[in-house]
Amino acid sequence: MPDEGAMLAFSFVGYISQEIAVGNRTNIDITLQADVKALNEVVITAFGIEREKKALSYSVQEVGGESISAVGNSNVVNSLQGKVAGVTVKQTSGAPGAQHRITIRGSRTFTGNNEPLYVIDGLPVSSGGRTIDINPNDIKSINILKGPTAAALYGLRASNGVIIIETRKGDEASKGKPSISFESNYNFDQLSLDPRYQKVFAQGENGNFVPHSAFSWGPKISEMGTYTNQLGEQEEAAVYDNVGDLFKTGGTFNTNLLVSNSLEKVNYAINLGYTDQEGILSGFNMQRINLKFAGGYDISDKLKVNTSVSYSNTSTRSVDLPWWGTFAVPVSYNLKGKPTHVPGDPFRQINFRGQHDNYYWALENNYANQNTARTFGNVSFDYKPLDWLKVNYRIGLDEFATIGKEVIEKGSAAGRTDPPSGGRISNSTANNRQINSNLNVIVTRKIGEDFSFDLMLGNEFYDIRNRGLSNQGSDIVIGGFHHISNTAIQTTTESLSRSRVFGTYANLSLDWKSTIFLNATGRNDIVSNMPRQNRSFFYPSLGLGVVFTEFLSVPRNILTFGKLRASIAEVGQAGPSHATENLFVPGSAGGFTFPYRGLNAFTHDTQLNADDLRPENTRTIELGFDLRFLNNRIGIDYTYYTTEASGQIFRVPIAQSTGYASELRNAGEMSIKGHEVVLNISPVSKPNFQWDITTNFSTYRNRVISLAEGVDQLELGGFLVTLVAQPGQEYPSIRGWGYLRDPASGEVVVDNRAVLPNGNQNPRYGMPLRSTEQVILGSAQPDFEIGFNNELRFRNLSFAAQVDWRKGGILSSGYNRLGKLYGILSETENRETPGKPFPGKKGYYGTAGAVTVEGDNDIPIVYGEQFYRFNEDLIAESNIYSATYVRLRELKISYDLPARWFSNSFIKSASFYFAGRNLWLKAALPHFDPEMFNTTEGESYNTYPQTRSFGGGFRINL
Q1: Secondary element (H or E) of residue 521
Q2: Mean pLDDT of the chain
Q3: In a 10 Å sphere around its CB, with 0-12 CB exposed, 13-18 middle and 19+ buried, how is residue 240 labelled?
Q4: pLDDT at position 2
Q5: Are 608 and 660 in contact (CB under 8 A)?
Q6: What is the rounded average pLDDT of the residues 368-382?
C-alpha cells in the first residue's frame, strides 16, 4: 500500500489488538487494553463439550501437551505430578514399562477402584493400569475434571474424577499443505538413591566371620587378612561396591513423526511413535510402537464425520529379584565377575544368601516377558440441522490382549516349592474389550438479549468384558527347557467378568449476560452386576457461578476478573464383578489342593456375596473463587470441597457356622475435606521476555467415620505393617508394633532390668520395650503437597523448572529395616562402644502387666547386633519415617532456532532442548527414595528403585 496509508498492527496474548495509521510519524506510543473475553479459556468437559472456563461451577485444570512430552517421559501419567492441584501420582516401580497409580483428591472407597476415568478423544477407555500404552508425544492437552460435579455426566465410572486426553488432529494443520513434525530425544537413566553403607565389618554373626552369612555382624574387614570364599579360593578381605557394580546407566529413546493436513472438507493426522527403554539393570527393558490415524470429513455444511484409531504394541522384560536383599548385601562380598553357579551344574547356584538368589544368577536365568497389543478408536457424527440444534453420535472400541511368560529357573530360591528350588513356569493371557456408544442432542437458544441456555439430552451404553487364562507349572524337570509341559505339577485358572451399563442423562446450562451461570445435571444408570432390585440409580448435580466483577465498578487493571462458584453433586460406584453370585473355587483338603493325580474337586468360595447390595454413594459440596489482578498478571484459583462417601462395599466377617468366612455388604462411611490453591504470577510480561510462575497447592484430610457393626478395623494389606481403615482415624492408617510408652508423658519406655526374674542377664537392658499390642503408628496422608513451576522465555531461549514439596505423612521403610537388621547401613557402624542412652523413660512391665516408670533413661547402650537385630527389628515403629521431601522434579532448557535461518528452505522451524527429571532430592527418609512405594500406599519394600534422568532432543517442523 502507499506509504501514507501504512498501518502498524499491535497485538499480544490477552490484550485487544490495535491498528494505528503511521502517517508521517516516526514515534508511536500505544497502550494495549486487557481483553477479558480473551482471558476466558475454553476447556474440554464431559463428552468433549467445549465450554468457557468462566462458565464452570467446578474446578478444572488443563495441562498442555508440551508439558507432557517436555522431558521424555515414557508414561503420560508421570508428567502430571506437581502440575495439577489435588492430583497425586504414585510410582510403584522405576522399572521400564512400570504402571503408576493416580488419585484425585484422595481415596473415596475402602476396597474398590480409586482411579479416575480416562477419556481419549471423547472415548472412555479402560485404564487397567495401562497408561503406558499412550504416546505422550501425541497429546495436545489434558483436562482434569476433579470433582463429582465436573464428572457426573460420565456416570458411575467417573466417581473418582476424569482425565480427558485430546490428541493431535489434522484440523490444527495449516490449510492446503501437509505439515510434518519430527521429534527425537534420548535420556540417560541412573539410580536415584544413594544408600550409605558401613564399610568396616564383614559378613558374619556375633563378631565371627561366616562365609555364607547374609548378615554383616562379622569381624572388621581390616583385621581379616585372607579368607576362604564360597568357591574355596583364598581371597584378600576388602570392601566392594556391590550396588554400584550391579546397576548401570540405562537409557530411554523416543522418536515421533506427525504428518497432518487440513483441506477444504478433509483433514487428517498420522502419528507414528517409537520408544525403547533400557533399564538400569540388565534384563529390564521396554519397547513400544504407537500408530494413530485421525481424520475428519465435512459431508455437508450440516453433517461432519470424525474418526480416530490408535494401535500400540508394548513389550516389557523384567526379572524376579529379591529387592530387599539386593540393597543389603555385605560389603565384603566379592560378586562381580565371579561364577554364579557350581561348575558343571548351572542350576545349582553359589547361593551367597540362603533365603535369596544370587542376583547375578537370577539376572542370567530368570525372566518375565509381557506383550500387550492394544487398539482403541472411535467414529463420531456431528449433525447440525438448525443453528440451535446439534446431534452427536459416537461409538468406540478399546481392546487389548496381553500375553505373559514368567520363568523362575530350577535352582532358584524364589521358586521354592516341594522339592526345594524346583522353579516354576507361568503362562498367561488376558483379553479385555470395552465397547462404548453415546448419543447427544444439544439445544442452544437465546432468550431475549440477556438469557441463553444449553440443553443436552443423551444416553450412553457400554459393555465391558475381561477374560483371563493362566497356566502355572511348578518344579521344572529339565533346567533350561522352558515349556510348561516340562514341569511336575500344573495348575490352570480361568476368569471371566462382564458388565453392562445403560445410562441416560441431561445437562442444562443457563447463562445471564455471561455473568451468572447455572448448571444442573442428572443421570440414571442401569448396571448389570448389581442385584435386580438395585440396578437402577440416579444421581444429580447443581452448580452456580457468578462473575461478580460485572457488578462492581473496580478498575479492571486492578481487579481484572472475579468469579464465585458453588456446586453439589452425587455419584455412585457399583460393586465388583460377580458381586451377586456365589462362586466355586478349586477344593483343598488334608494339605492337598485339587486337581490332584487326575482328580478334581470344587467347593464354595468362603466369601458370601449378597443379593441386596446398593452402589456406593459419594456426595460432594464444592466452593471456590477465581480472581485475576493487574491485567491477568496475577491469578488465584481457590477450591474447598467436602465429600461424604457412604454405603462402602467391603467384606464383613461372619460366623463360620454359616459355611462362609465373610459377606459382601454395604457398610461404612468416610469423610474427605480439602483445599486447593492454584496461584499464577507473571512477574515480567514483555514481547521478548516472559516469566510465568504457577504454584499448585493441595491438602486434604480423609477420615473413616464408621465401619460395619462389630468391625473395629478393616485390613487393607501390607507386609511389615498393616494398612487399615479404622473409625475415627485418617485413611489409610498404618498399624504395627510400636514402642511401649509412658501413659503420663507419652515417651518411650526403656527396659531398666539388668537381671531378669529368672536370674539371667537381660540382653535387652537399656533398650526400648515393645507395645503390648499393635497400635496405630500414623497416617500415610501428607499434610500438603505443592508443585512450584517456573518458566522463563527470553527471545528464543526458554527455561522451565518444577520443584515438588510434600510435607508430612509417614511410611514404613522395608529397605531401612532390612539394612539395619543385617548390619549393612551406616547407622550400624558404631557397634563396639556404648553410645548415648535411648531417649525416653526407664521402666519395666509389672507382674500384673502394668507399666512401671522410674524416671528419665540414663542407661548407655551399644547400638549393635543385639539392638538392631533382636530388639528394633521386632518394633515396626523403629522403621517408620516421615514421607516429607523436596524434589527437583523437572528441568528443561530449550532454544528455538531463528526463523530467518529457514526463510528459503522447506523447514518451517526447529528447536532443541536439554532436560532432566528427578535431578535432586532432599528427604526425611534416609538412604532411599520416599517414592519407592508398593501398590500399598504407606509402605516401601521389594520394589525396583526410582531413577533420575537427563538428556536432550530436537524438533523439526516442515
Answers
A1: strand 516-527
A2: 88
A3: middle
A4: 44
A5: yes
A6: 96
